[in-house]
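Sample pair:
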Amino acid sequence: MGASDRRIASLLRQIATQDVVVLRQEMAIARRAAAQAYVAEQYGFEYGEARREGPRKQVLAVYMYRDPRPEARAREAATIAAFPEAGRGGAAPGLQPGTLKPTAEAEEAVDRIKDRIGYDVMAKAADAGQKAVAWGMCGVLVVVLLLAQMYVGALVGGAALAAFLLGAFKVGEVRRQRIAQRLTAAGFTAVRDAHGTDRFLRPGQQLPGHVNPFGG
């Protein structure tokens, strides 16, 4: 089996034994995680949340939760019947053979999952705590340079870092707004969770609790 088939096999092992599936992928290729999340949805799971993990926050972690609703169980049964060789080198739902690329029929759904992943990650990066850390780093730089009696460096360096942070926050906000527009147009609902973080839910999906959108 190729690398893509091995990833699907690993995903299906989680699906068979766990109520929480975690997909981990490098941040630069989030679309692969979105494609695997789409596969998990066909087996009766629902997208829960996404966040950066790891020592340097370079790993994207996407959390999927088993949906207890009857329609989800029916979808799982239909998928198992239609794709009996998935994870063993055979076709997997919504993917081109031997790849993690979506089929034409699944591409729109995969794109929206990717949007939800991106929005969640950016929303966490934009919360007050993260901004406070960023501005705190700026302040530390200025203090260190002042203590070193590098007064011009403190002024220039502090101003440059502040300008960079403001620009980065603005770019992130613009990207989030564009994603929000696409999700709203696709019928997703904007909500704010118990932690004060903005989220988007699929029509009919309940507001998540701590992590599990189905309250389990």
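The radius of gyration is 21 Å.
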